[in-house]
Automatic annotation (TrEMBL), chain A:
Entries under Gene3D superfamilies matching the protein: P-loop containing nucleotide triphosphate hydrolases
Subcellular localization, as worded in the UniProt entry: Cell membrane
Keyword annotations: Antibiotic resistance, ATP-binding, Cell membrane, Membrane, Nucleotide-binding, Translocase, Transport
Molecular function as annotated in GO: ATP binding
Domain ABC transporter, chain residue ranges per copy: 10-240
Record keyword Protein transport present: no
Protein name: ATP-binding cassette domain-containing protein
Keyword Transport (UniProt): yes
Lineage: Bacteria, Bacillati, Actinomycetota, Actinomycetes, Micrococcales
InterPro entries: AAA+_ATPase, ABC_transporter-like_ATP-bd, ABC_transporter-like_CS, ABC_transporter_ATP-binding, DrrA, DrrA1/2-like_C, P-loop_NTPase
Family designation: Belongs to the ABC transporter superfamily. Drug exporter-1 (DrugE1) (TC 3.A.1.105) family.
Region of interest: Disordered: 314-336
Predominant place of localization: membrane
Automatic annotation (TrEMBL), chain B:
Classification lineage: Bacteria, Bacillati, Actinomycetota, Actinomycetes, Micrococcales
Domain ABC transmembrane type-2: 43-270
Superkingdom of the organism of origin: Bacteria
Family: Belongs to the ABC-2 integral membrane protein family.
Membrane-spanning residues: 45-68, 74-94, 115-134, 154-178, 190-209, 245-268
Main location: membrane
One Pfam family, short name: ABC2_membrane
Protein name: Transport permease protein
Membrane-protein topology: Multi-pass membrane protein
Annotated organism of origin: Agromyces soli
């Protein structure tokens, strides 16, 4: 085992998975350093779950390689499984059993003795605040409780790498904050975490580095700051009264704010990254002088949609606006 | 976090294969899960509780008079037959439940754990022998209440039960295979009964074979279920059954040897 093997928790090179004619994952490269949190950000159907499934030995890649701490996911799956904990997007615990029974079962499967398994189960239930519900059937569990139990089950063997597929989707804000705390504690104890999310702020809060994936490809990769810098710290949204003023308005924004505004799929809407909210005044004066009328104006924190618009040149839902080269972000490892 | 710091991935000494001992331990843990599930959802036992009682009562009184003159003299011949029929029908449920189970999220976790690949299958099939045991017991108890007094006594009944359960376990690998390859639980049931009906009805389970046409007698003769029924009958009556017993166990071994690897391979390909 050489040095490079031990520095990377995950090395994925050109991973491909096709389902029929659909290239769900189309050449994904990832490098995740040990001891860090890595966020994979992408909209529905981007290929997040499929990528995780290949790295977690659940799906066989059609092409490319994946290595976990230097071990190939196809050639040494049994070793890889000893190094990972997987919390899938959908509950992967046994609905018919109680919380304790689930954790004892998984502990036993992982080679713990009877007494040891019971102790471990009790310890994890305590840690995840599920002790009161330990004996209740899972059918009566709320979404948040299920999610926590699911995560607890992934931690039994104290794996050095944990995959979390959309750990907070569907959770209320308070439960989400708790989940974030748990993830932070995990990392402080030495784990590496790869998490997928649809929310930029979640990746921002938790991840050391982020890969934005779209249609099975990595559209951009970098730290949260690098990504945000490419999108602006907030975004300016304008709706024009006359859609045919679009070109003039874009030119005005470029002149005043010094950034490129992207036209959204909806007619007459412009989105521009913005570092300094003060400059809006200046822009508004310029627009009025040019006789361009607005029906709507707002300044927002960048949403995933904006990140996408800026990074890939097309919106999350739209599949037709093909302007990929226009807004190429200057990020390390970008391969859109 | 109450846990100590985690051993880094690169510093762990790991093996890429699963030992036989671990395979057995994992399968037993999975069987334990199967038993917990039976305990949690006892309504799923309807088929192994009501069916044996109903079938035994019904068929004895329907066929008994016509075939053996009266119901009571039909019992020694018929009870082992209905036992085999009931327990084998029960083993179809194994495939159906396996399909339903595999569609659940928990199987994703099983696949991501460093356990023997065959364990979820082997465990499910092992736990189901409990169901066969219940069906066997209830069939004999119903028979006893109706006046069935086997010559070989309790020992014979016990031996017959074990043979039938072993055979049903072997056959359940066939249904498990359908369970793994089928798209839905409903279709598993469909294909399984297609296999099950010729096997159980084209046998000597209900009527002696000598009134059947020659070609049918030939099939009944080679049908492993016939050997199983004859062996079970002989064991309860205390007659010599070495040949049929051997044929039954050989048939069971062949079924397992063919279908266990097929099922495991199909299961792993799905994984
Ligand atoms: N088993 C499968 N068979 C066929 N197509 C699949 C399968 N799994 C995923 N896909 C397709 O592959 C694409 C990527 O799916 P994937 O589940 O990886 O996306 P995702 O990024 O996890 O999305 P979400 O945010 O909705 O979970 C989708 O178009 C999906 O329809
Ligand atoms: Mg997903």
């Amino acid at each position: 085992m050489n040095l490079t093997d031990s520095t990377w928790a995950i090395e994925a090179d050109g991973l491909v998975k096709t389902f029929g004619a659909n290239r769900a994952v189309d050449g994904v490269d990832l490098r995740v350093a040990a001891g860090t949190v890595y966020g994979v950000l992408g909209p529905n159907g981007a290929g997040k779950t499929t990528t995780i499934s290949m790295l977690a030995t659940l799906l066989r890649p059609d092409a490319g390689t994946g290595r976990i701490f230097g071990h190939d996911v196809v050639k040494e799956p049994q070793i890889v499984r000893q190094l990972i904990g997987v919390t899938g997007q959908y509950a992967s615990v046994d609905e018919t059993l109680s919380a304790t029974e689930n954790l004892v079962l998984f502990s036993r499967l992982l080679g713990l003795g009877r007494a040891e398994a019971k102790r471990k189960a009790a310890e994890l239930l305590e840690e995840f605040g599920l002790t009161d519900a330990a004996k209740r059937p899972l059918k009566q569990f709320s979404g948040g409780m299920r999610r926590r139990l699911d995560l607890a089950a992934s931690l039994i063997a104290q794996p050095p790498l944990i995959f979390l597929d959309e750990p907070t989707t569907g959770l209320d804000p308070r439960t989400r904050a708790q989940m974030w705390d748990t993830i932070r504690r995990l990392v402080s104890s030495g784990s590496t975490v790869l998490l997928t999310t649809q929310y930029l702020d979640e990746a921002d809060q938790l991840a050391d580095r982020i890969a934005v994936i779209d249609r099975g490809r990595v559209a951009a990769e970098g730290t949260a700051d690098e990504l945000k810098a490419s999108v602006g710290s907030s975004s300016l949204q304008l709706r024009l009264a006359e859609p045919r003023d679009l070109g003039d308005a874009q030119a005005a924004i470029e002149r005043v704010l010094g950034v490129r505004a992207t036209a959204s799929p909806e007619a007459g809407r412009l989105t521009a990254p913005m570092q300094d909210a003060d400059r809006v005044t200046e822009l508004l004066i310029t627009l009025r002088e040019a006789g361009i009328h607005l029906t709507e104006l707002s300044v927002q924190k960048p949403t995933l949609d904006e990140v996408f618009l800026t990074l890939t040149g097309h919106g999350v839902e739209s599949d037709d606006s093909d302007d990929d080269a226009s807004a190429e972000p200057q990020l390390e490892g970008s391969r859109a | 976090m109450t846990t100590a710091t985690i051993v880094p991935g690169a510093e762990r000494a790991l093996k890429n294969h699963v030992s036989l001992g671990q395979t057995v331990r994992n399968s037993l843990s999975m069987a334990y899960r199967g038993l917990l599930k039976i305990k949690r959802t006892p309504e799923q036992l309807v088929d192994v509780t009501l069916q044996p009682i109903l079938f035994t009562l019904m068929f004895t009184y329907i066929f008994g008079g016509a075939i053996a003159g009266d119901a009571l003299s039909y019992l020694p011949f018929f009870l082992p037959g209905i036992l085999v029929q009931t327990v084998i029908t029960t083993s179809v449920v194994t495939g159906v439940q396996l399909r339903e189970d595999m569609d659940k999220g928990v199987f994703d976790r099983f696949r991501s754990l460093p356990i023997a690949r065959v364990a979820p299958l082997a465990g499910a099939l092992l736990a189901d022998t409990v169901r066969y045991g219940i069906a066997t017991t209830l069939t004999f108890v119903t028979g006893y209440l109706m006046g069935f007094r086997p010559e070989a006594g309790f020992g014979g009944v016990l031996a017959a039960s074990v043979v039938v359960i072993v055979a049903a376990w072997a056959l359940s690998w066939i249904f498990a295979f359908f369970g793994v390859i089928a798209r839905s639980a409903g279709s598993v049931q469909g294909i399984s009964f297609l296999v099950l009906f010729p096997l159980t009805f084209l046998s000597n389970a209900y009527v002696p074979a000598d009134t059947m046409p020659d070609w049918l007698q030939w099939f009944v003769g080679i049908n492993p279920v016939s050997h199983l029924v004859t062996a079970a009958r002989g064991l309860t009556m205390g007659t010599d059954v070495t040949g049929d017993l051997f044929a039954t166990l050989l048939g069971a071994a062949i079924v397992v040897a063919v279908f266990a690897p097929l099922t495991v391979r199909a299961y792993m390909r799905k994984a």
